[in-house]
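Obj.: predict assembly geometry.
Materials: sequence records (below).
Method: joint structure prediction, all chains together.
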Amino acid sequence: MNCNESDTLMQRSLDDVLTKTERTDLDLHLQSCAACSRAFAEYRSLTRLVRGWRLSGPEPSANSQAFLASVMNAIEHTPARQPSIAVQCLGVGAFVVIVVLAIGYLTPAVQPVSSMVAVPLHPMGMVDSAISTLMTIPRDETQSIQSWISETQTGLPLNLAAWTAVAINGMLIIARILSRRRKAMAGGSHA
Amino acid sequence: MPEFGIREAEKTADRGGAREHPSDESLAISVRDTGSTSAFGVLVTRYRARITGLARKMMGTGHADEADDIAQEVFVAAYVHRASFRPGAPFKPWLYRIAVNRCLDRLKSRARQPHITDWENAPEPITRDEQEPLSNYLAGELDSVLQRAVDALPVNHRAVFVLRHIDELSYEEIAEATNQPIGTVKTNLFRARAELRRGLSGYLSTDDGMNVQGGSPQ
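Observations (raw structure tokens):
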């Protein structure tokens, strides 16, 4: 055993985690190495010194009841980390309304079909181009198809956006309620 | 918030087994599950001195007055974050983790602040009262020297050393409290001891007349 290994064993000995074999090995090394023997004596002396230091020091300034009261008072006045569920739902709802309104006003579907320019990426633009091919269809039928498409264009995007937003909002609220309930089950409520 | 009847909590927190002295874990579960302030009060009473002592040793010379504040912050944080206590896990390392983190946060923020020596309020040098026994004076002097030596340790080494020697946590508990692998804990602890042995060599005995078989220091 060299002195580095001996140092590790000395320190483990201070923590009382040496095996019987390690103890014997260390003892044998200490008997033959004056430097390690001196170092081990210093480690033991340090341990005794620290034990005295642990027990020293002034008593805590406030008595137990006063300290406990101050802790409880601080807990009581610790601001909630999250707003109430009602406020959160209101916030989500307001956001959803804004999104729905924005989609509703910005979508080309609210414009008359005649004024629309076919936009390749917009599915309704493709419908418009399909309308022109339908112009060969007799006038009455064309008008009825056109009015149906116009109604669909006006209603569909708004409905889709609204229902999607409502669904997302509902899922958020349900997820939040479930999360709250799970936390309450795990210790959220006061005794 | 309900009144905290500590004796009632001690009797009721552990519904099975030791009713009069419920374990820390059963009290912690009670706090976690019901938010019981009375059970929490028992834990505060049990751990207050230890957490204050840890904070005092960690914060170092001249900052002992912060210890009570830190202890209060630790218990408030423990209550606020009680849901993070895992059933089946030991309570002590969980609480010490909060305490060590608080101390480290304070030490970091202190390190960021410019150092200004307050000569007006500087502590008086230690002087011996004629009526005080010499042994007491020397013990106080040694404590002061040891505290200064511990203050000089790197923060990670200091935390591990204090947790091992002042709070008598095991390697595993220290690993949990400091969020370090056990190997790192041992390395830091051994280095801290080696540094202290070198730094305090003039104060340490080189002959205690005992071999390894002579008994555990613990």
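Conclusions so far: The longest helix of chain A spans residues 139-188.
To do: check interface contacts against the pulldown list.
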